[in-house]
Amino acid sequence: MSLSDEMTIPGRKPKLADLVIGTLRKRISAGEYRAGTKLPTESQMTTIFGVSRTVVREAIAALSADGLVQPRQGAGVFVVGNAASPFTAIGADTSNKISVAINVLEVRMGIEIESAGLAALRRSASQEAAIQEAWNEFERLMKLGTPTGKTDFAFHRAIAAATNNPFYIEVLDGLGSRTIPCDVASPWGTESVLTFEYQAGLQREHLAILKAISAQDAGAAREAMRQHLSLSQERYRQRLREQSTAKQD
User: Which residues have C-beta within 8 Å of that of residue 148, sequence separation ≥ 6?
Assistant: First the structure.
């Protein structure tokens, strides 16, 4: 499917960068761009996708943040060795259907509730500091009115790292930062989830998780994470109900 084809899909019109990101993810996942190989140059991609250099750079930055590609100064952009992980296919889904977001959150609940409990039991002082720093950065960006999605993901990733089990990080990286709805690159990011009030609510939920991990209270950490992700699911279900009501009117 070409970018022009994807632009005709009904629903929220995606950004050009989102379309480039989604196409590159699919090609990497399908093995068209294999691990260790070099992606087309920036100039070539502007021709391939019919977009500007700015759009290409935004797409590469997002893929790099998700660990799928690695820019090497003077050499180009290369596909990372583990990019073909089965989990990558989940993060590659560019659908903006809310039902997909709910499914992703269900997967995250199965992973992150336990990771929060393990982080509370196993975290080192430096790992606790990393979680705190991610929370602080979210707070700073939120007050500046700038996107917090990458920092939101960094908070959850720091918790996964504090389990000292590398597979928790691998799964979370496979899901990717685009699964965070307050990230402007997320297929489920909307104006309503980018507001200060929405993000302040997330930050309060994050604080409960942070406090429990700092206190090394595994039970409280699991419950705080369960509450955070359950509330996120409910927020999406409410949006589904609103969509259904709007269609009936």
Answer: 138, 141, 142, 182, 183, 199
What tokens does 68 get?
A: 């799928």
Scored b (16 or more CB within 10 A) or e, 184-210 reads: bbbbbbeeebbeeebbeebbebbebbb
Over the chain, what is the mean pLDDT? 82
3-class SS of residue 69 = strand
Whether residue 171 is found in the same domain as residue 221: yes
| Number of H-type helices and E-type strands within the chain | 11, 2
The residue that leads in pLDDT, 100 or 222, is 222
Asked which of 79, 114, 132 is the last residue of a domain, the reply is: 79
The pLDDT score that the predictor gives to residue 216 is 98
Helix (H, G, I), strand (E, B) or coil at 38: strand
141 within domain boundaries: yes
Residue 136 lies in a domain: yes
Within-domain flag for 84: no
pLDDT, tens digit, 9 for 90 and up, residues 42-72: 999 999 999 999 999 999 988 887 778 988 8
**Domain ends where: 51, 79, 107?**
79
pTM of the model: 0.62
